[in-house]
Write a sequence for this structure.
Protein backbone atom coordinates (compact mmCIF):
# COMPACT_ATOMS: atom_id res chain seq x y z
CA UNK A 1 0.00 0.00 0.00
CA UNK A 2 1.02 3.57 -0.53
CA UNK A 3 1.27 6.33 2.02
CA UNK A 4 1.95 10.02 1.75
CA UNK A 5 3.46 12.29 4.37
CA UNK A 6 3.22 16.03 4.13
CA UNK A 7 5.78 17.26 6.57
CA UNK A 8 4.23 20.61 7.39
CA UNK A 9 0.59 21.13 8.29
CA UNK A 10 0.88 24.90 8.04
CA UNK A 11 3.29 27.13 6.14
CA UNK A 12 3.03 30.90 6.63
CA UNK A 13 5.03 33.09 4.27
CA UNK A 14 5.13 36.71 3.19
CA UNK A 15 4.09 37.78 -0.27
CA UNK A 16 6.83 37.51 -2.93
CA UNK A 17 8.85 35.10 -0.79
CA UNK A 18 9.76 31.64 -2.10
CA UNK A 19 7.98 28.62 -0.70
CA UNK A 20 8.51 24.87 -0.56
CA UNK A 21 5.85 22.42 0.52
CA UNK A 22 7.29 19.07 1.36
CA UNK A 23 5.91 15.66 0.47
CA UNK A 24 7.36 12.21 1.00
CA UNK A 25 5.77 8.96 -0.04
CA UNK A 26 6.30 5.29 0.56
CA UNK A 27 5.57 2.64 -2.01
CA UNK A 28 7.03 -0.65 -3.08
CA UNK A 29 6.19 -0.03 -6.71
CA UNK A 30 6.43 2.76 -9.24
CA UNK A 31 3.99 5.54 -8.62
CA UNK A 32 2.38 8.53 -10.18
CA UNK A 33 2.56 11.68 -8.06
CA UNK A 34 0.22 14.63 -7.86
CA UNK A 35 -0.28 17.95 -6.18
CA UNK A 36 -3.81 19.26 -5.80
CA UNK A 37 -4.83 22.68 -4.51
CA UNK A 38 -8.01 23.53 -2.63
CA UNK A 39 -8.96 27.18 -2.47
CA UNK A 40 -11.34 28.24 0.31
CA UNK A 41 -14.80 26.79 -0.11
CA UNK A 42 -13.91 25.02 -3.33
CA UNK A 43 -13.15 21.52 -4.52
CA UNK A 44 -9.73 20.18 -5.38
CA UNK A 45 -7.96 21.27 -8.53
CA UNK A 46 -5.00 19.54 -10.11
CA UNK A 47 -1.87 21.64 -9.82
CA UNK A 48 0.61 19.29 -11.48
CA UNK A 49 1.51 15.63 -11.86
CA UNK A 50 4.50 13.42 -12.40
CA UNK A 51 4.05 10.33 -14.51
CA UNK A 52 7.46 9.69 -16.04
CA UNK A 53 10.31 11.43 -17.81
CA UNK A 54 11.77 14.68 -16.55
CA UNK A 55 11.85 14.84 -12.78
CA UNK A 56 11.04 18.55 -12.78
CA UNK A 57 7.38 19.10 -13.40
CA UNK A 58 5.80 22.48 -14.05
CA UNK A 59 2.22 23.19 -13.15
CA UNK A 60 -0.27 25.98 -13.14
CA UNK A 61 0.14 29.33 -11.40
CA UNK A 62 3.95 29.18 -11.49
CA UNK A 63 4.31 26.11 -9.29
CA UNK A 64 6.75 23.32 -9.95
CA UNK A 65 7.70 20.08 -8.26
CA UNK A 66 10.68 17.82 -8.36
CA UNK A 67 10.48 14.06 -8.17
CA UNK A 68 13.35 12.50 -6.26
CA UNK A 69 13.17 8.74 -6.42
CA UNK A 70 16.08 8.07 -4.08
CA UNK A 71 14.56 10.26 -1.38
CA UNK A 72 10.97 9.29 -2.26
CA UNK A 73 10.03 12.93 -2.29
CA UNK A 74 7.94 15.21 -4.45
CA UNK A 75 8.32 18.71 -3.03
CA UNK A 76 6.32 21.61 -4.41
CA UNK A 77 7.98 24.98 -4.97
CA UNK A 78 7.20 28.49 -6.10
CA UNK A 79 9.86 31.19 -6.33
CA UNK A 80 7.55 34.07 -5.45
CA UNK A 81 4.11 33.62 -3.90
CA UNK A 82 1.06 35.84 -4.09
CA UNK A 83 -1.71 36.34 -1.62
CA UNK A 84 -3.98 34.47 -4.04
CA UNK A 85 -1.88 31.32 -3.47
CA UNK A 86 -3.36 31.04 0.01
CA UNK A 87 -4.96 27.61 -0.03
CA UNK A 88 -4.59 24.06 1.16
CA UNK A 89 -2.28 21.86 -0.86
CA UNK A 90 -2.51 18.09 -1.04
CA UNK A 91 0.10 15.67 -2.24
CA UNK A 92 -1.25 12.39 -3.62
CA UNK A 93 0.12 9.15 -5.03
CA UNK A 94 -1.32 6.35 -7.09
CA UNK A 95 -0.01 2.89 -7.69
CA UNK A 96 1.61 2.65 -11.11
CA UNK A 97 0.49 -0.92 -11.52
CA UNK A 98 -2.97 0.01 -10.50
CA UNK A 99 -3.05 3.13 -12.58
CA UNK A 100 -6.11 1.95 -14.37
CA UNK A 101 -7.87 1.85 -11.03
CA UNK A 102 -7.28 5.54 -10.52
CA UNK A 103 -7.18 5.20 -6.80
CA UNK A 104 -5.39 8.08 -5.10
CA UNK A 105 -3.83 8.19 -1.65
CA UNK A 106 -3.69 11.66 -0.17
CA UNK A 107 -1.48 13.32 2.38
CA UNK A 108 -3.05 15.26 5.21
CA UNK A 109 -2.60 18.59 3.51
CA UNK A 110 -0.51 21.73 4.01
CA UNK A 111 -2.22 25.04 4.61
CA UNK A 112 -0.24 27.76 2.83
CA UNK A 113 -1.03 31.24 4.10
CA UNK A 114 0.51 34.20 2.31
CA UNK A 115 0.70 37.44 4.27
CA UNK A 116 1.03 40.92 2.78
CA UNK B 1 -21.51 24.88 -16.21
CA UNK B 2 -19.51 22.74 -13.85
CA UNK B 3 -18.50 19.30 -15.08
CA UNK B 4 -18.98 17.65 -11.68
CA UNK B 5 -21.83 18.83 -9.50
CA UNK B 6 -22.84 17.84 -6.01
CA UNK B 7 -26.12 18.36 -4.22
CA UNK B 8 -26.76 19.59 -1.66
CA UNK B 9 -23.81 21.87 -1.03
CA UNK B 10 -24.58 22.15 2.65
CA UNK B 11 -26.73 19.97 4.87
CA UNK B 12 -27.48 19.83 8.55
CA UNK B 13 -29.19 16.73 9.85
CA UNK B 14 -29.86 14.93 13.11
CA UNK B 15 -28.41 11.74 14.46
CA UNK B 16 -30.23 8.69 13.15
CA UNK B 17 -31.58 10.31 10.02
CA UNK B 18 -31.02 8.87 6.57
CA UNK B 19 -29.38 11.22 4.13
CA UNK B 20 -28.32 11.02 0.51
CA UNK B 21 -25.64 13.05 -1.20
CA UNK B 22 -25.75 13.17 -4.96
CA UNK B 23 -23.10 13.58 -7.60
CA UNK B 24 -23.59 14.16 -11.31
CA UNK B 25 -21.03 14.58 -14.05
CA UNK B 26 -21.10 15.67 -17.66
CA UNK B 27 -17.54 14.62 -18.45
CA UNK B 28 -18.54 11.20 -19.74
CA UNK B 29 -16.13 9.50 -17.36
CA UNK B 30 -16.72 5.90 -16.38
CA UNK B 31 -15.08 6.05 -12.97
CA UNK B 32 -16.48 7.86 -9.96
CA UNK B 33 -15.32 8.20 -6.37
CA UNK B 34 -16.57 9.43 -3.01
CA UNK B 35 -14.15 10.91 -0.47
CA UNK B 36 -14.54 12.55 2.88
CA UNK B 37 -12.28 15.29 4.12
CA UNK B 38 -11.65 15.94 7.78
CA UNK B 39 -9.40 18.69 9.10
CA UNK B 40 -5.85 17.42 9.44
CA UNK B 41 -6.65 14.07 7.87
CA UNK B 42 -6.68 14.85 4.17
CA UNK B 43 -9.06 12.96 1.90
CA UNK B 44 -10.05 9.39 2.53
CA UNK B 45 -11.76 7.14 0.03
CA UNK B 46 -15.24 5.87 0.93
CA UNK B 47 -16.40 4.08 -2.22
CA UNK B 48 -15.47 3.95 -5.86
CA UNK B 49 -17.13 2.70 -9.01
CA UNK B 50 -15.60 1.69 -12.31
CA UNK B 51 -18.94 1.51 -14.09
CA UNK B 52 -22.59 1.05 -13.31
CA UNK B 53 -22.17 -2.59 -12.32
CA UNK B 54 -18.85 -2.34 -10.53
CA UNK B 55 -18.78 -0.77 -7.07
CA UNK B 56 -16.00 -1.17 -4.53
CA UNK B 57 -15.39 -0.26 -0.93
CA UNK B 58 -12.71 2.20 -0.06
CA UNK B 59 -10.82 2.51 3.20
CA UNK B 60 -13.68 3.93 5.28
CA UNK B 61 -16.91 2.47 3.91
CA UNK B 62 -18.53 1.49 7.23
CA UNK B 63 -21.74 3.44 7.79
CA UNK B 64 -22.05 4.39 4.12
CA UNK B 65 -23.62 2.91 1.02
CA UNK B 66 -23.62 4.00 -2.61
CA UNK B 67 -25.67 3.67 -5.74
CA UNK B 68 -24.53 4.16 -9.31
CA UNK B 69 -27.81 4.92 -11.02
CA UNK B 70 -26.23 5.70 -14.37
CA UNK B 71 -22.80 6.39 -15.74
CA UNK B 72 -23.27 10.05 -14.88
CA UNK B 73 -24.71 9.67 -11.37
CA UNK B 74 -23.21 8.33 -8.17
CA UNK B 75 -25.00 8.76 -4.85
CA UNK B 76 -23.69 8.34 -1.33
CA UNK B 77 -26.08 7.43 1.48
CA UNK B 78 -25.75 7.54 5.22
CA UNK B 79 -28.37 5.09 6.46
CA UNK B 80 -28.32 6.36 10.02
CA UNK B 81 -26.19 9.44 10.38
CA UNK B 82 -23.95 9.89 13.42
CA UNK B 83 -22.03 12.98 14.57
CA UNK B 84 -18.60 11.66 13.57
CA UNK B 85 -19.81 11.62 9.97
CA UNK B 86 -19.73 15.38 10.06
CA UNK B 87 -17.27 16.22 7.29
CA UNK B 88 -16.77 17.65 3.84
CA UNK B 89 -17.66 15.12 1.15
CA UNK B 90 -16.22 15.17 -2.34
CA UNK B 91 -17.19 13.34 -5.46
CA UNK B 92 -14.58 12.81 -8.18
CA UNK B 93 -14.52 11.35 -11.66
CA UNK B 94 -11.88 9.85 -13.89
CA UNK B 95 -11.65 8.66 -17.44
CA UNK B 96 -10.16 5.17 -17.63
CA UNK B 97 -7.92 6.33 -20.46
CA UNK B 98 -6.48 9.18 -18.42
CA UNK B 99 -3.38 8.81 -16.34
CA UNK B 100 -4.97 9.01 -12.93
CA UNK B 101 -6.16 12.60 -13.05
CA UNK B 102 -9.32 12.88 -11.04
CA UNK B 103 -11.75 15.77 -11.35
CA UNK B 104 -13.46 16.91 -8.19
CA UNK B 105 -16.84 18.38 -7.47
CA UNK B 106 -17.25 21.42 -5.20
CA UNK B 107 -18.03 19.35 -2.13
CA UNK B 108 -20.93 18.89 0.28
CA UNK B 109 -20.54 20.10 3.82
CA UNK B 110 -22.49 17.75 6.09
CA UNK B 111 -23.16 18.42 9.73
CA UNK B 112 -24.74 15.74 11.90
CA UNK B 113 -26.08 17.03 15.19
Amino acid sequence: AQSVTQLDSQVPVFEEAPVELRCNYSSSVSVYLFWYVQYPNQGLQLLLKYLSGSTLVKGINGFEAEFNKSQTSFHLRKPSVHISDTAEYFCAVSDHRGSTLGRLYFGRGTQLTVWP
Amino acid sequence: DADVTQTPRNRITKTGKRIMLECSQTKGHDRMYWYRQDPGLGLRLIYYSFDVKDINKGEISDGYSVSRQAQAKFSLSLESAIPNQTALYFCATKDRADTDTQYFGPGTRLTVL
